[in-house]
Design goal:
Length: 118
């Protein structure tokens, strides 16, 4: 069974940057699509970005394009989310998810809190 562990969240000020990490274990990472979601207080969980581990193809939600970058390190079984120019709207719990194809999420991490003060 695939296990995901996120890290890198914290409290920052508007305009700052953070890099989230998602370490994956228990699966053939190269066959997966790894995704980042976020859930703001009182709101539903929403897609942020994903990356195909075999070829690095990336998809972003429109609100983070140009500010967030998803990347992978297959040797370290890790996916990253570099977040720049953060705003209060980015405050949320960020989750990593893994699945065999886009839109299919077989495993989820426990999440890491990102809080941006304005």
């Amino acid at each position: 069974q695939v296990e995901l562990v996120e890290s890198g969240g914290g409290l920052v000020q508007a305009g700052d940057s953070l890099r989230l990490s998602c370490v994956v274990s228990g699966g053939a990472l190269s066959t997966y699509v790894l995704s980042w979601f976020r859930q703001a207080p009182g709101k539903e969980r929403k897609f942020v970005a994903d990356i195909r581990m075999n070829d690095g193809f990336k998809v972003y939600t429109s609100s983070v394009k140009g500010r967030f970058t998803i990347s992978r390190d297959n040797a370290k079984n890790t996916v990253y989310l570099q977040m720049n120019n953060l705003t209060a709207v980015d405050t949320a719990v960020y989750y990593c998810a893994a699945g065999p194809e886009r839109g299919t999420y077989a495993s989820w991490g426990q999440g890491t809190q990102v809080t941006v003060s304005s």
